[in-house]
Write a structure and sequence with these properties.
single chain, alpha+beta, Rossmann fold, 7-stranded antiparallel sheet, 26% helix
Length: 451
Amino acid sequence: MLIKLSVENYKSFDHKEELSMISSSKLQGNKTHRMKIKQTQLLKNAVVYGANASGKSNLVAVFAFIKTVLVGGLPVGSVADFCRNREVNADRESFFELQFTVDDTFYAYGFSAILSQRKITEEWLYELMQDGGSHQLFIREGRNAPVLGKDVKLSATEKRRFGVYSEDFAGQDTQLFLTEMSRGKRYNKNSKLIFFPEAFNWITRNIIVINPNIGISNSEVFYNDESLDSISKLIQTFDTGVTDIKTRQITIEEMSKMIPAEVLQSIFTHLKAQIQMSNALSIQMTWRVADGFFNIQVKENSEPEITTLVLKHGRSAFDFSFSEESDGTKRLFDLIDMLLTDRPDTVFVVDELERSLHPKLTEHFLKMFMEAHNEIRMQLVFTTHEDTIMDQDLFRRDEIWFVERDADNASKIYSLDRFKERYDKKLSKAYLEGRYGAIPVFRQFSFQKGE
């Protein structure tokens, strides 16, 4: 489970900002919204509010950026991703760190980089202890060879193996060592180096980022008739008019007519990279791109198998394509996997969850998500403008967060829990009145009228 995200000098975040999933010990309501792992109580939800251009989407982008760098190294386009509200930030390190659990082990993994120079300057992985201490698992500084922490005791064979990998990696500027130690390498379950693939796999596979215009999932719910039947029944509860969902196989040529060529290319590049990273013979993923919804299975040395959705409405004798559905229905298909997934310990990070959805539909979806994953290690972090769900019956105060720009135009993150409010207070009304900040501040504009 996610414990904490920290970021500094990235996009609109100048100084170090943190989003914490550690629950407040003062709040007793909605106890099912917490999961206890060892002695730590972790929240299952984080709702992030803020005005337009406050930095909400940039918070989601931090999760996506960490995953991107782990899979493919520092992107060329990241040279302009430092916080550009101050000139000195161009040559200042940017900082990224995730604290999370894998089973009952607590990890802190992060890296720093000078983005303008496309150069990673440091990388680290620690095991966090319940007494507040930590054990260093590895650290990599500059272009030096990465080294293990003194508490990592290896056999002679593993010591030689690590030494080769470490020396070969020395001098790398744009790649992460955690990636190198997880790329196509095999570890037995008793290996003292098992923390490398554990941390890498959790971040790259268990954090699912969903943006308003594109969604990616490794779920299998769109690949068999039984789960499609469940989706059909589930989608009917949202009153969309869709009564049945099937799939139809298409060719790459047909798919290329539905989406831009550069998007198609990026999809298959991503899939090939995933195959190489996982050392698997095949991989399957679901993509929602603009007006297209595709299930793609790629097997080594064979043509990809592609299917798309076919939808039925009521008693109509005709089929409907995904592109013909309303924006709200399309948005539901981005999110539906979140209700049906049985993947343990997944963190869904969703930008503008309520986009194109009626407020009542948004509330219905959230209640279903909580019900589906009650007492299960499943978390939801999402940004929103929807004030009607700012309700202490739906979310705890420590689950509600705000992002706001300060006088220097830098984004700040803070929790509702820092405000002392009565339990009977109407939170949405107080928010819209500006009690918690993070709302638009308008300036006067005078229209010039001619004589």
